[in-house]
Model the fold of this input.
Amino acid sequence: MSPHRADSFLQALAGIRERLRDGVFRPGERIAATEVARLLGLSATPVREALSQLSGEGLLEDRRGQGFFVRALTGLDIADLYRLSFAHLTIAADVERLNAKGIAPPGGRLPGIAMDPVRDVERLFVDWVMEAGGQSLWMSYRSLFIKLGPVRRVEPMVFEDLAAEAAALRGLGQGATVEARRQALEVFHARRIEQADQLAPLLNRSRDGGEV
Done:
């Protein structure tokens, strides 16, 4: 692969991942390579290669003869994603306790300061995983983080205290014990697991263009 082609492929990967995370491409939606190429200002070839790569990562479903689709999510799927998120972040907390300092993996942290509690917590959790320093943990969490993105964006329809929750989690920085962080993470994820069946129809209604 030529350097220019490789660069276009990486741009396509980053652009599609970002749109999946932000809910631009919603669960159950078909993604047309030509339309994505137009949006990203790229040719269709690297976009198709990126879609195939993301299918291999489990972020998309390759339906032979029909194209690539974002995987649809049921309430059970959403609950499982939150359980996996809790597991990843608990591992990160344990690893961070053992290591004097973490080494952030390639890719950098999410830029800027979040302007809403959902993005604020997303940034915080990414920081915690990256500070743990494990490449394998980060790669696994990144995929999970993207899959949960659209779900996180309908959370304000269910939870009214997200700003206070985000502020409390922000307070678990330097000086907080691993046990305090683990307890806060358990509460954060448990209430979302409990409401997974309520989040699923909101996600689908948002995807179908209805009001939420």
User: Anything to note?
Assistant: The domain at 3-70 is CATH 1.10.10.10 (Arc Repressor Mutant, subunit A). The longest helix spans residues 75-98.
